[in-house]
Specification:
alpha/beta; Rossmann fold; six-stranded mixed sheet; 12 helices; binds Fe4 H S5; binds zinc ion
């Protein structure tokens, strides 16, 4: 397979785009496309300050690398979850993230959950009702809370995450199977700022996971190959598997599933205001849901009482 642009050996063939590119032209293409998506969805401008949520994985580190190369002002935030799982998952991912930032002279905020709250994520999960089964719900809630907090305290304009197309399509499939109107309303490449919380953007939302893996590889980014040990058996992994089967038969199916959804929203499919039964802290205020500041942490929540994170932490410290 040859590169469409220069005829050198291609490092990737993207069947859905009918495009093969070499190790020089592929990263260039990724950067151009990212810039195009940032503009198309009006994610942010060069004068704004971005906070990139980095986990040490290929997506978030590639995203930070791309934004840095494109000349955006992007600092990082890494959250130490205290997950070991026999592979020193958190230690390794933190080391690789710090190394990445140091090599490029980028500023990284590190928040260690155990240092800050007295317990690791698996420990909090064991101490609360949310821990029944897997620590993922505790983990997700805590990460959202901490990212919002760091973005707010550092007066960042935008909180940027490395969700790729596989993540977005899997989330969309899950929300569609249950017709979760609240979540469907809020799934978007960019969400506006809400009550003092930063705008949220996902510049990689149209890239396949394999494209990001290829970008990290050809750019020489050292990332953690292992998935979080708690990822196995999650619904998201299951939906990704189903979508990969579909993609195998019909190249481009994943992309078209996601893009048709965005188009349908733009055409007014979800213009009705939905009420939602989702977790209060996931809410962005989309759909006209009334938000109140949490009396303990100040972050927006749908109930006039404490937010779900503060309620959970009250159980842990009790
Ligand atoms: S890090 Fe946390 Fe994920 Fe690990 S514990 Fe679950 S949610 S799987 S993205
Ligand atoms: Zn080429
Ligand atoms: Zn709170």
């Amino acid at each position: 397979m040859r590169c469409r642009k220069c005829d050198h050996k291609a490092v990737i063939n993207m069947r859905q785009h009918k495009l093969a590119l070499c190790k020089e032209h592929f990263p260039q293409w990724v950067m151009e496309q990212t810039e195009r998506f940032i503009r198309k969805y009006r994610m942010f401008e060069r004068h704004e300050r971005l906070l990139v949520a980095v986990s040490g994985g290929k997506d978030s580190l590639s995203l930070w690398d791309i934004l840095w190369r494109l000349g955006y002002q992007a600092d990082g935030v890494y959250i130490g979850l205290g997950i070991d799982g026999g592979i020193s998952y958190s230690d390794t991912s933190q080391r690789l993230t710090e190394q990445f930032a140091a090599q490029r002279g980028l500023q990284l905020h590190v928040v260690d959950i155990q240092e800050e709250y007295g317990s690791t994520i698996p420990q909090i999960a064991n101490l609360t009702y949310r821990g029944q089964g897997k620590p993922c719900s505790v983990c997700g809630l805590t990460k959202r809370h901490v990212m919002n907090r760091v973005a707010h305290q550092g007066a960042y304009d935008v909180l940027v995450t490395g969700h790729n197309l596989d993540d977005e399509a899997a989330m969309l499939l899950g929300n569609t199977l249950t017709w979760n109107a609240g979540y469907l309303l809020r799934q978007a490449p960019v969400l506006p700022a809400l009550q003092g919380m930063a705008r949220k953007a996902k510049p990689l939302c149209r890239f396949y996971e394999r494209e990001m893996a290829a970008y990290a590889l050809v750019s020489g980014i050292e990332y953690i190959y292992d998935e979080c040990p708690h990822a196995a058996g999650t619904k998201s992994i299951y939906y990704k598997g189903l979508l990969n089967q579909l993609e195998e038969e019909r190249p481009g199916a994943k992309l078209s599933f996601y893009l048709s959804f965005l188009q349908a929203k733009e055409n007014g499919l979800f213009n009705e205001v939905f009420s939602t039964g989702g977790e209060a802290d996931d809410l962005t205020g989309a759909g006209g849901v009334a938000m109140h500041p949490c009396p303990t942490c100040g972050q927006p929540t749908t109930t006039p009482a404490e937010c779900a994170f503060c309620r959970m932490m009250a159980k842990v410290t009790r």
